[in-house]
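Tutorial handout. Part one gives the primary structure; part two gives the three-dimensional structure as tokens.
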Amino acid sequence: MRFAFADCELDLDAHVLRMAGDEVRVEPQVFDLIACLVLARGRLLSYEDLMTEVWRGRIVSDATIASRISMARKAVGDDGKRQSVIRTVSRCGVQLAVPVTELPGTMQSGMTATSDDEKHNQTIRYTKSRDGTGVAWAECGEGPVLLRAGYWLGHLEHEWSSLVWRPLLDRLSSGRRLVRYDPRGTGLSDRQLNGATVEQLVDDMEAVADAASLETFPVFAMSQSVPVALALAARRPERVSRLILLNGFVQGSTVRGEIEKTETFVGMIRAGWGVPGSAFMRALATVYIPNSTSVELNSLVQMQVLSATADVAVELRQIIGRIDVRHCLEQVECPTLVVHFSGDQVQPSEQSRIMAQKLKSVEFHLMESQNHILIPSDPIWAICHDEIDRFLALGNAGP
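Part two.
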């Protein structure tokens, strides 16, 4: 949804604020605060309303709220003295002081059409894995290379329209040549898994690196792509220069003895995959991003169906549950950044602690979040990306 007010335009689907036609970068909480005011269309919002909508019900100080309001005013060309756009009503709350117009071209689905120019001139190509499976890969941006490992809820084309994945792509490709791919069975790659053992998934990643002419390169991996990245680093230590591992694991849920977790995921997929408005698909997305905005959640629900068929999604979840790469850890030579979110319900943080204990050169960060996927509305978004940028910069600086 897109809205115009004062000299500003707010695009909720693309998570973009513009003033006088120029994009204004704001913190996620500030963006959410502005969005709440715009959607209220002049209705007075109490501080309790703001804590519910912006801070997801967490109690925060008046000083914190006042700070975010001040930042929101600055973002829209206002200030505390004039209050011509955002008005504070003493001891009551805050409201938008200008009319709001909904702009045409709004999409209600949580996804938004994206032009080729907006896709960073992405180029999609195909390569063959060792067993002949076709793997789609793409690159965008310029600068030092970063290979983003593939995951099962992605799609090279549709990620640019996703409120979950687009902000991540924008951040990872800023000042970098970002290479990424759809794993076998998903997205634009061959929709048959043809086995999909860990070794075959490593073959897919290595085939993409070869096709992109990457000699040495860092890898950003999250969730089920983490064990694949670890296995590649163990197989090709001369090529993988750094690893960034987010909310990953070395033992799948079945190997850990949590068979019911695998069965629960599989049950939700079989019950609702591809069914419009399915409560099962929304429940599955909520496990991945419990603390998210409604548009982020809707976007991930849509991506589920775009990424794979129900049969492939079920088989992938079963394969993920059986993964065990503990034997690879002591073979990994490169510096590694391991990050895990404390409240992650998909993969327990203990799995990242195993990596931190066994890897030779590792930094470990346990960050406060209930999510499994890093999303822009999460308060740790900027903190996490700053750590990633810092770690990658160490590699770019050389020995």
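Part three, for discussion. The domain at 117-396 is CATH 3.40.50.1820 (Rossmann fold). Residues 110 and 294 are 8 Å apart (CA to CA).
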